[in-house]
Amino acid sequence: MKKIQQALQPFTVHVILLSYTVIALFPVLLVIMNSFKSKRGIFKDPLALPTAKTFSLVGYQKVLEESAVVTFFANSMIVTVCALALILLFGAMAAWALSEYRFRGARLLYFLMGFGIMVPIRLGTVSILNTMVALDLTNTLTALVLVYVAQGLPLAVFILAEFMNQIPKDLKEAARCDSVSEFKIFFQIILPLIRPAIATVAVFSMIPIWNDLWFPLILSPGESTQTITLGVQQFIGQYTTNWNAVLSSLSLAVLPVVGLYLIFSKQLIRGITSGAVK
């Protein structure tokens, strides 16, 4: 009986994981599938695959011809890449300081980082908007980058600090005995060792930045600074919605996230399984 239970346990785990995968991917596949169908085909049978009768690229044609989708993509890429670079750089430096050095105020900084994770940054939207207006940064991508850096830093510091604490002290002390500077220890020894954690932070930070609609709508609603999630809204009207264009835009918007996951999937899995997220 015990052998049967041991044999069934992996099977049960795989069934649960496959079921969760299907449930998680089903909305994405549904959007992509319906983006290649005509409007009549979408509403007649939304769960059916595109056929020769229902196949249509009118949504992609409308998105490419009647909207500044290239500008929207470029804005999203600029904001996401700049925010991620600053989050990873400043997050790694702060995590290194908190995990390696003992100084007064370290516990307070940890508390503030934890506070930043628990409290949604959207609660400070009014203050953030007033600050951006005072700095004359409204309708600029800089405002979005600054907000997203502040949003992503607490989680980045916690994850990276946890990884840095696992690095043997002997390795760092040996480097110091060889007169290696703290700058080289950080960039040439520590950062390469925490690549799985960096990939984890990059993926976890990128998704909310790329998908965010709240701050682009409030801080940069101008036509030249709209991100892809905000640009899609032009196809959603009060009384009518161009579902072909909406689904096509969403299908295009998901491509960078999928590409990032494919590139960093190995590092992401290593980071999660080695205790980056607890």
Automatic annotation (TrEMBL):
- Keyword Iron included in the entry's annotation: no
Example GO CC term: the record gives: plasma membrane
Ranges for domain ABC transmembrane type-1: 73-264
Say which family it is in.
Answer: Belongs to the binding-protein-dependent transport system permease family. MalFG subfamily.
Membrane topology listed for this record: Multi-pass membrane protein
Keywords from the named record:
Cell membrane, Membrane, Sugar transport, Transmembrane, Transmembrane helix, Transport
From the Swiss-Prot or TrEMBL record, give the protein name. Answer: ABC-type sugar transport system, permease component
Xref: InterPro entries: BP-dep_ABC_trans_perm, MetI-like, MetI-like_sf
- Provide the transmembrane region boundaries: 12-33, 72-96, 108-129, 141-164, 185-210, 245-264
Please list which residues make up the signal peptide: none
Q: Which CDD domains match?
A: TM_PBP2
PROSITE patterns per the UniProt record, alphabetical: ABC_TM1
Gene Ontology biological-process annotations: transmembrane transport
- Location in the cell: Cell membrane
Does this entry carry the keyword Transmembrane helix?
A: yes
